[in-house]
Amino acid sequence: MWKLRFKFLYVCSSRNYHLWKGNNQAIMDNKSKSKSKTFHSATGLVASMKDPELKVKEDDRIVVIKDKYPKAQFHYLILPKADIPSLWHVKKENEDLLIHMHNVAEKLTREHEDYEFLIGYHAVPSMYRLHLHVISTDFNSPCLKTKYHWNSFTTPFFLHSTDICKELRETGELKEQKFEDSTAYLNVPLKCHKCSATPKNMPELKRHLMVHLPGKKSLFN
Q1: Which residue intervals of the chain are DSSP H helices?
Q2: Which of 179, 219, 181 is nearest to 71 (CA)?
Q3: Helix, strand or coil, per DSSP, at residue 142
């Protein structure tokens, strides 16, 4: 599934958007169940913005939803109402929007003062529609299953919102990273984000993470 999603978003990059538009129509016209399922999963965020069970809050510019498959105790997505396909479609005129999204994210984190958070974007997002991740650093969730999941938040594959806003402010544009360079981070060896531990596999990593969660009650029990 990850490979399928990366393939979808690769053609949805700024320099390949015309390919995505063609594939979009082809998938819509194709009756293949597997292809239809892939398209739906990649564009599911747009539908989730209207789901009352996922929606947390909204204003005239953005919608905040809970991630349907949270990778931590608290995992939110902030999406613009404007139809911006991905981070690499952001323009200089969207600077105020990105700052607004970041400010909303910071307000969310203050609702959970006992937790640390990461605020940022995936270099190669797996879903259509620009979305900002707001995720607690406990990473205590049954949905955190693969090395790809882990490395997508704990390596330079994760682009911090403050850095993105600064780059857009100073240069007037966002320089898209090479697809191959970004996705290479997903295959690096596992490493704890809080200490020097290097677990051999995901079960070992998840057991180790409990060391860093004294006194915190799991929301998934």
Answers
A1: 2-11, 17-29, 33-42, 44-48, 95-109, 147-154, 161-171, 179-184, 202-209
A2: 219
A3: coil
Confidence band of 7 (pLDDT split at 50, 70, 90): very low
| 100 assigned to active site | no
Q: Record the tokens describing residue 192, joined without a space.
A: 């704890």
- 155: its two tokens: 């390596």
Q: 56-62: long-range contacts at Cβ-Cβ below 8 A with a sequence spacing of 24 or more?
A: 56/108, 59/104, 61/97, 61/100, 62/97, 62/100, 62/101, 62/104
pLDDT (0 to 100) of residue 161 = 99
* Catalytic one of 75, 102, 122, 131: 131
Residue type, 36: S
What does the pLDDT look like over 67-78, one tens digit per residue? Answer: 999 999 999 999
pTM: 0.82
